[in-house]
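dumping these here so i dont lose them again. two proteins, back to back, each one seq then structure tokens. dont judge the mess
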Amino acid sequence: MAEIGTDIQKAITLLQEGEVIGMPTETVYGLAGNAIDGRAVARIFAVKNRPAFDPLIVHVPDLETARQYVENIPEKAEALANRFWPGPLTLVLKKKPIIPDLVTSGMDTVGIRCPGHALTHRLLKALPFPLAAPSANPFGYVSPTKAQHVNEQLGDSIPYILDGGECNVGIESTIIGIEEEQVIVYRLGGLTLEKIESVIGKVILQSHSTSNPKAPGQLISHYAPSRKVLLGNIPALMQQYDEDISAILSFSHDYGVRNQIILSPTGSIEEAAKNLFAALRRLDKMNINFILAELAPDEGLGRAINDRLRRASSS
């Protein structure tokens, strides 16, 4: 298993040697490596068993550093970065040649962001290169929100996990791009549409996923536990699936059964988002066949929660 610790210097040394490590962010834990070292990037894909057509996000400490790796930053993208970086926002921009094609799956754009986690910000400031860092889990599985989650699944393949505690957002970053001066949301995430639109006006939400994504996290089936997730009206599902072979994942309601997790007893969408992936992992360890789940209110971070639940149920 990997060593878990808070030694930034150890993390720096390993990354400079071309290793990949577990890294905290405010959204989920990432599997981090030198984004401009093709061998380190290839190692990320190998450890995750990630298909080469699914691009990676590059992490930088600030907007000025981002300019070193992209051709330009359109006005609307810069306005969003100035308002929401550090934070759960990824911008898809035209890349410079220094970013390897493997990072971007051969595309001429790269997803780039400045994570809002103090420990990781210190790490990025100390490094002479950016970090490519998809979620630190086997491809397609539930994203990790604690260092131990990373160790349980990738600990035999990496030397070190930088422990930054539990992620305080719990859902991956929102990804946006700009096409013909129109802002496109490629992936719903930890930054709500309402907050984005308060800065730049109306955006377009890409309504379908694809097997040839323009950005990470667009595949139809993703974020899925090994147990079958059935999404719908929980009372109706309870009539079809016996309590002995199923568990319930509810937003705020207590259904009075033995195997259930309530994402937010108080009905807080933010609390539910923070707890979602950890809850799916706990349910996946139960002696059950099915996870009966319901949607959150379709507003704010609820849209991102529902996006993850729909894709978890598509596997």
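---- next one ----
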Amino acid sequence: MNSSDERHPLFNREFRYLWIGNTISGCGDQFFLVALPWLILQLTGSGAVLGGIMMVEAIPRAALMLIGGAVTDRVSPRKIMILTAASRTLLVAALAATIWTHHVEIWQIYVLCFFFGVADAFAAPAAQTLLPSLVAPAQLPAANALSQGTQQIAMLTVPAPAGIIIAALGVAAAFTIDAVSFLFIIAALLKLRDPPRVESAAPRPNITHSILEGLRYVKNDVALRTLLLVVSVLNFCITGPLSVGVAFLAKSKFGSPATYGLLMSSVAAGGLVGLLLAGARQKRKRGRLLLIVCVVVGICTASIGLLGQLWSLLPVLFVMSVSAGFLNVHLLAWFQQRVDRAMLGRVMSVLMFASLGLMPLSLAAAGVAVQWNLPGMFAGAGVLVLVVTCVAALQRPVREID
């Protein structure tokens, strides 16, 4: 490892441009995330419509994610990110214009969210493919931790002022701010160079064959397919229980929205600490470390439903979130380091599908499970994490990851 590999990625000019652009755009996204539900409820007053619009965004994102990865391996990920960011800019600006002129209708929001889902399907694998071309492999944990940590800070700090601006100036102002923020990530991407292309003498297969190549690549690598299974189970067992289960727990045991807010603040704070720890931790003996952290996540998840006091729930949720944040950074960095550059877009799309595609299923399953048995839902989720961790621990290539 040379000295440049040991430096923090912020010393890298191209990564610094990307980080600044993403940070400003991410802050703008928080305005969008506050304004959109508020606008939908203003227009319809219906929670069912709100949920339906979220599903309209989630469906194309999941359905097209593998295609997005295959396209990323054929086209410059930088160009894909520029195109998707420009598309989002136009969509949000158009929505803002319809609100300013009092011509907004609910069908326009359905259209916007559908195309946002399409853009996500291509932008997500492209973003994860571009980053390894900007920094050295040893810098990937710190680069991912910084990027995700910044977004986590934006999630904690921006929604409150966004709400104040919406109350003072209206939702159109929030959408306008989001549209302008996209220009910063576009400007940053325009300053970057395209990553080197990996050329092959063999004829280029069609999209379907490219997707199947990516799936076969994952299948033929024991460590890769095992950790992909771990990622899938972690996302399935954490997303729904945290989003649905903790809210139900706060309502049924404490009857206080303030308590729910406190519990979710503990989750957010833990996630941020986990990202910071992951960025500081060097990549030695990662296999065993990741397995131990998975065990911690499983034990914490299983115990949540058994705890009836706020003083005991807060530290357990904090520790679980620290562990999950740590895992997220190191698993993502390991995938980026492990995969051949020519296959990176397709493999990252499989990873993104495992992360995002299972979210609706996890939320739906948790919604059913909490009505059946709240402690049983958390216990079942935790046990499933522990079982998959044991399966992963039996694989020598996983234990030997360094």
